[in-house]
Design the sequence.
């Protein structure tokens, strides 16, 4: 439980209301009751907040009052994230190194690092300080994990992978599976050994069931601050820049490059060896099959400028009627031609 | 081994054949031999059954005879499901609570519940009666699992998730991973804590590797009797109604709503915040990017009425020839115009 | 470390350079330094190799010299695969049977087979010789695993699945989850028990997080030498032939058939019960919704001959302008018609 005064201080906002009012939890603007705090960052949400029952609403600095207690901040969404953190229940995280953890030789475990039950850590691996390794995690040999990284249950990190600081690895994620490369030889497919590795830089996030394959040689790289949602597959030798966002069920084929600040929406794809320029947004289901210039907004299959794709999609809907229109035109032109012929024949 | 009499009684059907005839197993209509029972529910399958070698065939009440032993029932497919259950081999399921299971404090384990080797169960969690927890399952703290639910190996259920009765959770499924939400701040992406949870109601099924993310606040809900195939990703705050069917590799973005009785075919997608009305069918690969009225049949990208989409796809195939037809028309019109002009010039 | 002479012998090639020159590792043609060996199999790569700094380059028999040490071979890519194997670091693989492995009754474990920590193996299961079972793997009852197969961490193999020799199963893969089949009954969905199994033949590969569902009755089959990339989902009763290649995030619906030597590129789909003929290639994102003749190259949704699909995609881009062109044509024809009418009216 917090008071409004405490929450206003937490988010650095200006309170308009009773500083002593208690708040028992956070809720969405649709579901918040008198015991909750919520937020509203645009006109639609502000109207809902005004009509709703929330005990307090975090709103933009310059918004009009809504007839109930508010906390004014520059970025309500960011402030609400801090509030959510304050109300987050204690996680069932491991503490200390569990007696059942199987730890190889020459393993370094930093101060305050926890290793859960039935975790397995290979020889030569180094875990930084404050790392949380949930139960059942597998970490191979010669792996490096940076300070304050959290690895959720059943994640797998294969040999020699390097993970930075404050990285979050969701349940079931896999780093360093073999890349998918074969050489055809007489109708059979001979495996190309993948002896490279994976590097995940500081502050990245690897989503549930997301997999990052190791490089043939060199590294597959997930840049600093880059966030991968669940069910994403990053193939061998892909290079992801910094602060990239990749939504769920997207795939990047071998050696694709994605520059800083790119957003790939859900169920997108990037074909092998192409580059998506910095700051580009690929809309949902978009499939990149050529290099994309920085700062682009693209969509469709193959991905093309979004405005063009929207025009094409709109035109497609008119296609059946267009076929008929052209048929009718052909008949009218044929009719004109025969009349013209007849007129010519009749001419003196 | 069963006799035909026993199987007829099991499915509540009328036997036409020798009650004492032994049946050693079930098989598809294509593969069934004299020792097998199979089923045929339509004309094509009945013809195969007639031509085949099956020892017995489950057929509709009113079907013509097929020259071999039959059991007549109202719903052959449903009857065959019962037969398959009868012939199902004993699974290698755990029994009792394995000595290596790590069980937190204040955990309740119902009568007849089994917990396999190396399973980990967090504090405050309650397992109902007759629950089967396979080896290596991770269950966090304060989780509730209803009676007779089966959780296959390596599934992960994070803190505070609530699972109903008779739910089936296939291997590798994850319930309660963090939702994918970030607030941009100065080029970086700040995580929004997801402090809500996941509720899976009675008789639901969660497929292999399927993941359901926890809500930001509130719950991500999988309704009663709803069946998710494998490799499905359900994002934070999605609301799935009752008896929904979602086939493999489909994705639902944040806060999407799917009402009762909807079917989403394979590789489909629903964009965030949209509603798919009750009883709607979305065909394979369809991508819902707007609200869909109840009872619709939609397909395509973006999803639109299926008949319209079929017309568009058919028209697309004629598009290259259409371009040429329009070119030819333009030439003919130009020719007509010049002749008309000439005729006009010639006119007195 | 190897000498050039040793590597030339390893790949069976002709060395042009100092046999005693040391090579410390392998690298891509872009990144190779004087201590590395690389390969170049086409003109573009050969130009890069000439301009680069590699200590040695594996090139085709008949290529021109590139001004640095080379090893000439028939197939540079295949030779490089052998070199990568030579330079592959020792994996952190388990040795022997770990004391924490839980092994059921009547389990056979072949000579030289290793079972890692916290692996669980069900009763009646047989592991061949030289099998490597990484930590945390779950293998059910009555499973067969052939000689020299490698099963990476956290993979799950359910009851009665049969896996051949020299198969590679990447982390998190699941074989033998239940197929997704239900019978509607009064608005509810009744599970069809899946009592068949999965067969994975010799030399196959199952990618990271890839799942293969067991058959309703009979088997779901992965043919000899067939390679599945990561995040692939193979539904119940699918039949994959030999030496098939399926790239990441592809899905095959129930009872689909894929004949020998087919390649499915990334994010493809095959609808249920259809057959993809031998040697066919389905391009990325293609969705097969009908039988495909052997030796085809198809793409698009629905998949059609690739050349036709390319013409359609090209024509789509011209669709918005086509709509305008037809509008203009209609106006011109209407103008012609009214002039023709006027001319006719003026005629005596």
Sequence:
């Amino acid at each position: 439980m917090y008071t409004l005064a405490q929450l206003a201080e937490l988010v650095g906002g200006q309170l308009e209301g009773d500083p002593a009012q208690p708040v028992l939890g956070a809720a969405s603007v649709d579901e918040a009751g008198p015991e909750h705090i919520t937020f509203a960052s645009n006109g639609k949400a502000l109207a809902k907040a005004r009509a709703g029952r929330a005990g307090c609403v975090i709103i933009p600095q310059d918004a009009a009052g809504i007839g109930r207690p508010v906390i004014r901040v520059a970025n309500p969404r960011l402030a609400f994230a801090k509030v959510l953190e304050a109300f987050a229940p204690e996680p069932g995280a491991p503490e200390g190194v569990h007696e059942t953890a199987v730890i190889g030789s020459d393993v370094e475990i930093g101060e305050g690092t926890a290793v859960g039950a039935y975790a397995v850590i290979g020889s030569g691996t180094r875990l930084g300080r404050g790392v949380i390794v949930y139960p059942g995690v597998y970490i191979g040999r010669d792996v490096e994990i940076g300070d304050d990284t959290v690895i959720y249950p059943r994640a797998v990190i294969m040999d020699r992978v390097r993970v930075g600081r404050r990285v979050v690895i969701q349940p079931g994620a896999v780093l360093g599976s073999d890349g998918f490369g074969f050489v055809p030889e007489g109708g059979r497919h001979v495996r190309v050994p993948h002896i490279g590795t994976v590097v995940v830089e500081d502050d990245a996030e690897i989503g549930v069931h997301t997999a990052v394959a190791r490089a043939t040689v060199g590294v597959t790289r997930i840049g600093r601050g880059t966030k991968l949602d669940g069910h994403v597959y990053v193939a061998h030798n892909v290079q992801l820049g910094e602060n990239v966002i990749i939504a769920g069920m997207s795939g990047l084929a071998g050696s694709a490059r994605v520059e800083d600040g790119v957003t790939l929406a859900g169920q997108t794809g990037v074909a092998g060896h192409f580059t998506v320029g910095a700051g580009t947004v690929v809309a949902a289901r978009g499939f990149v099959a050529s290099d994309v210039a920085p700062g682009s907004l693209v969509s469709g299959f193959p991905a093309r400028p979004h405005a063009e794709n929207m025009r094409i999609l709109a035109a497609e809907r008119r296609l059946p009627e267009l076929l008929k229109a052209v048929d009718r035109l052909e008949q009218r032109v044929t009719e004109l031609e025969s009349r013209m012929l007849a007129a010519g024949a009749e001419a003196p």
About this structure: The mean pLDDT of chain A is 96.
